[in-house]
Design goal:
The complex is a heterodimer of chains A (about 350) and B (about 170).
Chain A lengths: L1 H43 L3 H41 L7 H28 L11 H29 L16 H45 L7 H38 L7 H28 L1 H39 L1
Helix pairs in contact in A: 1-2, 1-3, 1-6, 1-8, 2-3, 2-6, 3-4, 5-6, 5-7, 6-7, 7-8
Chain B lengths: L2 H48 L3 H41 L7 H24 L7 H30 L5
Helix pairs in contact in B: 1-2, 1-3, 2-3, 3-4
Classes of the chains: A mainly alpha (about 350), B mainly alpha (about 170).
């Protein structure tokens, strides 16, 4: 249940991210830039009410974007955690029905958390129980709390297992065969994570503070409008470029690490993917290729523009397709187990 | 189960719970207020500029800069702790396949866990404005040292996976 639910959550979260990147992200960025331009023009016209209106629009756009990014990230992370929990189940000393209940609760929380986050923008503060926290936030926070409780209980089960070492695993461990798929996913995933860490360290050292400083300089230009050559238009372009620069670098860093982690996790579930060796290898190659293509072409977006963006989206889609392919294998595996059990009866 | 695996799985689980508890606390008690303050100070900077109150506008812009600086690092603490925790647990499951002696594996696991705790902690220390400047600089040093530890440990793990003779 956790393996199936985990892969399904990751695939759904990635599909949502792809749809968001294609249909919402760029349009939202353009509208935010226009709202900022409106605010700067209102400053020049000494019109405070127009400034307020522009900022209300910007706040709305940023919330729209932020909640969708958060829904995407949290759904994928919940999927990862579900896969992780699946892996440690042999070392969690609880009865099978209790484990099943915990799995159901975890997947419920993992689904409701991103749904709640997604709804924050649309539900807003309608009939809100608190001054700044609406019902959608309450749903998201409650789902998050449910995940924490399940994790704590699972930790307790793990502690019970450690206290009684002589008993051994409470259920069979997954087979640790050194197949080509397993080795490719394990070493490929570790290398992807390492690349992501090194890129992140470079970003923090070389760009983070510079970006923060540049943002304030541009905002000052917009506010106090020096007699520069391009005036507002130049400042707005500079602001847009800075936001794009930040977005692609952070996205490349986070995506390559997430894909590395996903590859390692999927190396463990390969014994449960009931497909021929040929198809298993195809999905592994598609997944690893997509995991490299997406972050690399996200980074290249600044140089190659929309073409690179399109290739990056294709990379994301390759990962989703590979995940769905493996998911089909997991479904076939559970089906074969059911058939075996029926045959034995 | 080997000591290195236990360290990674248990340490990762505790770190994940810590990261989530921090995220829950932050979402309920801090985030909305911080976002309001951040948006409010930026809007205030523009409003004051429209009214030609330049000093007030500058003050509001400085407040925006400070709030955003804190916000980015506070959110980073949450996400990095949970992501690193997941990595620890994942590697914990498969750590016996790192082809080094158990003693070396334990050292790598310890370095990874220490780095995973220290790196985000250093990031959040950079936002502790009530402590002296030196402590904030110490935060930066901790963040750098922590991330270097994680990178070194991960590189060693990658080498271990590629080596022959994994158990």
């Amino acid at each position: 249940m956790l393996v199936f639910g985990g892969i399904a959550l990751v695939a759904a979260g990635m599909l949502f991210g792809d749809v968001f990147a294609v249909f919402v992200l760029h349009q939202n960025g353009g509208q935010t830039g226009q709202a900022l331009l409106g605010a700067a023009k209102a400053v020049a016209a000494q019109d405070s009410s127009a400034v307020n209106a522009a900022f209300a629009q910007m706040g709305n756009l940023l919330e729209d974007r932020g909640t969708k990014v958060d829904a995407h990230v949290h759904m994928i992370d919940a999927g990862y955690l579900a896969l992780l929990l699946a892996l440690i189940q042999p070392y969690v000393a609880f009865s099978a029905p209790r484990k099943k209940l915990l799995a159901k609760l975890f997947l419920t929380g993992g689904l409701l958390l991103p749904v709640g986050i997604f709804l924050i923008h649309y539900v807003g503060l309608a009939y809100a129980p608190f001054p700044v926290i609406g019902w959608a936030s309450v749903l998201a926070d409650s789902a998050g709390a449910l995940l924490i409780v399940v994790l704590l209980v699972e930790s307790w089960g793990f502690r019970n297992y450690l206290r009684d070492r002589s008993a051994g695993p409470v259920e069979p461990e997954p087979p640790k065969d050194r197949t080509w798929e397993r080795r490719a996913l394990l070493s490929g995933g570790t290398v992807l994570i390492l690349m992501g860490f090194i890129f992140g360290a470079w970003y923090a050292g070389a760009n983070l503070y510079e970006h923060e400083h540049r943002e304030i300089v541009i905002l000052k230009d917009l506010l106090y409008q020096p007699a520069g050559a391009g005036g507002l238009a130049d400042s707005l372009n500079a602001y847009g470029s800075l936001q794009a620069e930040k977005a692609v670098q952070i996205a490349a860093h986070s995506h390559i690490i997430e894909f590395g982690l996903l590859a390692i996790l999927l190396s463990f579930v390969q014994p449960y993917v009931f497909l021929t060796e040929r198809w298993k290898r195809i999905w592994v190659k598609v997944l690893l290729a997509g995991s490299v293509i997406l972050p690399v072409f996200v980074l290249l977006e600044l140089k190659l523009g929309l073409l690179a963006g399109g290739v990056a989206d294709v990379g994301g889609l390759m990962v989703v397709v590979a995940l769905v392919g493996m998911l089909v294998g997991v479904v076939r595996h559970t089906g074969s187990l059911d058939a075996e059990a029926r045959g034995a009866r | 189960m080997s000591r290195s695996r236990k360290l990674l799985i248990l340490g990762g689980t505790v770190l994940a719970v810590l990261g989530m508890l921090y995220g829950l606390y932050y979402a309920v008690f801090v985030e909305h207020q911080t976002l309001d303050r951040m948006g409010g100070s930026l809007a205030g900077a523009f409003n004051h500029a429209a009214e030609r109150r330049w000093d007030d506008s500058q003050t509001a812009l400085t407040a925006y800069r400070g709030t955003k600086y804190d916000y980015i690092r506070q959110v980073d603490l949450h996400s990095h702790w949970i992501d690193l925790a997941m990595l620890l647990i994942v590697l914990g499951v498969v750590f016996d396949e790192v082809a080094f002696a158990e003693r070396a594996r334990f050292a790598i696991a310890l370095a990874m866990l220490t780095g995973s705790i220290v790196f985000p902690l250093g990031v959040i220390l950079q936002t502790a404005h009530m402590v002296p400047q030196m402590a904030q600089l110490g935060g930066s040093a901790l963040a750098i040292a922590g991330s270097a530890l994680v990178i070194a440990a991960l590189a060693a793990t990658a080498v271990g996976f590629m080596r022959e003779g994994a158990s």
